[in-house]
């Protein structure tokens, strides 16, 4: 019996047990240094920034996941009262969120 991973559930586990950086500028900086294991971007992220992040992730071989919701939705899921357009995963903790990544 296969168990389907829920993005929201895995993100909650990631935030409790792992280590993340929030924001597109911080994520781009961390992508350039190669310290991320995965990147999560909101679907409403500005196209030029989204293209930069996807390009850097592909060059570095880092998987990325495009969340179908907006930056406000991603901010709410992370418990922040502001827009979160990108989340960089430094340590996945006990979550299986890396299995959701694609691209790379």
Question: Can you describe this structure in just a few lines?
Answer:
This protein is an alpha+beta fold and 104 residues long. It contains 4 helices and 5 strands. It is 40% helix and 21% strand.
Structural description of this entry:
It is a single chain. The chain is of the alpha+beta class and 104 residues long. Helix content is 40%, strand content 21%. The chain is built from four helices and five strands, in the order αβαβαβαββ. A five-stranded mixed beta sheet has the order 1-4-2-3-5, sandwiched between helices. Helix 3 (47-60) links the parallel strand 2 (38-42) and strand 3 (63-67). The protein is globular and about 30 Å long.
Mean of residue pLDDT? 90
State the share of residues found in helices, binned by percent: 40-55%
In N-to-C order, the SSE pattern is HEHEHEHEE
- Side by side, the strands of the main sheet go 1-4-2-3-5
Number of helices: 4
Portion in beta strands: 15-25%
Using the CA coordinates, give the radius of gyration: 13 Å
Give a short account of the largest sheet.
Answer: 5 strands, mixed
**How far do the termini sit from each other?**
28 Å
Query: How many β strands by DSSP?
Result: 5
Low-confidence stretches: none
The class by helix and strand makeup works out as alpha+beta
* Shape label: globular
Annotation keywords:
104 residues, alpha+beta, five-stranded mixed sheet, 4 helices, 40% helix, 21% strand, globular
List the helices and strands and how they pair.
Layout: H1 7-17, E1 19-22, H2 24-33, E2 38-42, H3 47-60, E3 63-67, H4 71-77, E4 86-91, E5 102-103
Parallel strand pairs: 2-3
Antiparallel strand pairs: 1-4, 2-4, 3-5
């Amino acid at each position: 019996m296969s168990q389907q991973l829920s993005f929201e559930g895995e993100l909650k586990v990631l935030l409790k047990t792992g280590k993340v950086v929030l924001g597109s500028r911080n994520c781009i900086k961390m992508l350039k240094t190669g310290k991320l294991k995965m990147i999560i971007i909101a679907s409403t992220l500005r196209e030029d920034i989204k293209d930069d992040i996807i390009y850097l992730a592909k060059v570095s071989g880092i998987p990325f996941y495009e969340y179908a919701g907006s930056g406000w939705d991603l901010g709410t899921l992370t418990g922040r009262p502001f827009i979160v357009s990108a989340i960089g995963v430094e340590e996945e903790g006990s979550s299986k969120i890396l299995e959701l990544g694609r691209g790379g």
